[in-house]
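User: For my dataset I need records formatted as: sequence, then structure tokens, nothing else. Please produce one.
Assistant:
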Amino acid sequence: MRKNIRELDQGLVLVQFGFDSLEIYILNYLNTNINMILEDPSFKKNLEKDGILVRRNSRIEFGDFMKSEFTKYAKIVKAIDLKVE
């Protein structure tokens, strides 16, 4: 019950500060929990077995990585004139 009250208090504080704070709170919450899942030994082992390198990163690092991947692959998509159907 105490945890729920604390989360409610955090939510009320975020509403007072506006949606920008709420967005950052949600992004940080997701990043923290995704990293916890990725660090689970059995989950990590399954990913690595499939050749997926698991690395903890911040939401800023992940955003930078995604931007670089979009940029890199956008050139290829444009060059081959790939369209979504």
